[in-house]
Amino acid sequence: MSRQAELTTNLARLSVVAGILSENGRILLSDRAQARSMQDYWEFPGGKVRPGESPAAALTRELYEELGITGLQYKHFKTIRHDYPDLSVEIEFFTVTRWQGKPDGKEGQALRWVAQDSLVLERILPADVPIVAALCDVSKC
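Now predict its structure.
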């Protein structure tokens, strides 16, 4: 077994949710400049699922905490697992097509609306890259 495989095998998998907010052919991205790691990347907004919390409840909470919005219409899109050298995550992605409020970076993060067919040109967090590909498969971008 490689050293990398040993590292990721021994890590607990962190449960995370992320919202894919779409409006008029554009997707909302959140800057990680304020994060502790991978600060040069953009990501779909979201965060950790708390113990005993359902993914839907975590999504609702995270959208409110990070963006100041209340999700009104969302649907599970895809679940992926990704192993970083120091962290292993399972992320449940939800498409969010209706919400109340205007998204704002409540934690000091920059936000940016990007045309869905231009997502492949962005510096996306590695765990989110398969979602960009899946979105393009669905919308033929």
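Confidence is low (pLDDT under 50) at residues 1-8.
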